[in-house]
Amino acid sequence: ELADEVWRLFREAMEPLRATGKLGAVLVQYPRWFMPNRANSEAIVEARERLAPLPIAVEIRNGRWLASDDRAARFVRWLSSHDLSYVVVDQPQGLKSSVPPILAIASPRLAVVRFHGRRTETWERPEVGVLERFRYLYDENELAEWAPRIADLASRAEETHVIMNNCYANYGTTNAAEFAQMFLRVTGVTAAE
User: Fold this and answer.
1) I need a labelling partner for 132 at 20 to 30 A (CA). Which of 126, 171, 179, 187 fits?
2) What is the pLDDT of residue 192?
3) Which residues contact 52 (CB under 8 A, 6 or more apart)?
């Protein structure tokens, strides 16, 4: 009963945003120990059911969900069958918990890209706080490699959201402004479009 009430209160709190068209999606993020198995797949479906009718975007932090091209394609199709958007991530690669930046769209309604930074030395260290883990300022070349990728996603989705989660000082806002200008130069499309 308590869990039911918590889910209900959350849905109720989000309703004004949804009703006014100001809610892009609820980000449902799963930790790196959330392995691909039946129970965890059912947990994702349960979140979808409990949050309905809110739009949901799923971010996984365990690369096993996408361990091969076939597995990644099946996972994206599965998300699609449950009306869930997939969150593409930019994060450190080559680590045990790395999730590859697969440019997939599970819902034609919404594509989501989330930039976490590439701070390899702090990514998997348990004693490191959030600010230190995501303390990463992207350089121009790193952002530039994403402009055509995000343009491709945007061409296949009604909306595309780009989120800077490199949350240290003004790093996220600085990179967001830089990327918006770069995206405009590369594609001729504004961030608002």
Assistant:
1) 179
2) 57
3) none
User: Residue 161: enclosing H or E segment and its boundaries?
Assistant: strand 159-164
Q: Which two tokens stand for residue 136?
A: 């990463």
Identify whether the C-beta of residue 111 lies closer than 8 Å to the C-beta of residue 159.
yes
**Rounded alpha-carbon distances, angstroms, from residue 70 to 31, 112, 138:** 22, 21, 31
Q: Cα(109)–Cα(159) distance, rounded to whole angstroms?
A: 6
Instruction: Name the pLDDT band for 191 (thresholds 50, 70, 90).
Output: low
The tokens describing 148, both together, are 């055509």
> What is the model's pTM?
0.90
Interior CA angle at 80 toward 32 and 48, to 5°? 65
For 26, the 3-state DSSP assignment is strand
User: Which residues on neighbouring strands pair with residue 58, listed in sequence order?
Assistant: 28, 86
Q: How far apart (Å, rounded) are the C-alpha atoms in residues 32 and 173?
A: 26
